């Protein structure tokens, strides 16, 4: 009987700020797994300032 060993990996998930690409305001924070999504993420989110859904991109 093979014993299943649980491998606990400490995955660093940095906090990512999402800014609206139209008004450049920071509004959302998210976390992503850098190994799963190495590319820059682009989320369509509702912006309070633009009052519409705008693409939010990550910033540092
Ligand atoms: Zn905006």
TrEMBL record:
Pfam families: Ribosomal_L33
Annotated keywords: Ribonucleoprotein, Ribosomal protein
GO molecular function per UniProt: structural constituent of ribosome
InterPro entries in UniProt: Ribosomal_bL33 (IPR001705), Ribosomal_bL33_sf (IPR038584), Ribosomal_zn-bd (IPR011332)
Domain of life: Bacteria
Any GO BP: translation
GO CC annotation: cytoplasm; ribonucleoprotein complex; ribosome
UniProt family annotation: Belongs to the bacterial ribosomal protein bL33 family.
HAMAP family in alphabetical order: Ribosomal_bL33 (MF_00294)
Identification of the protein by name: Large ribosomal subunit protein bL33
Gene name per UniProt: rpmG
């Amino acid at each position: 009987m093979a014993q299943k060993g649980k491998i606990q990996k400490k995955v660093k998930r940095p906090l990512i700020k999402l800014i609206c690409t139209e008004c450049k305001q920071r509004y959302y924070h998210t976390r992503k797994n850098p190994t799963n999504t190495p590319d820059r993420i682009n989320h369509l989110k509702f912006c309070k300032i633009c009052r519409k859904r705008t693409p939010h991109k990550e910033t540092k």
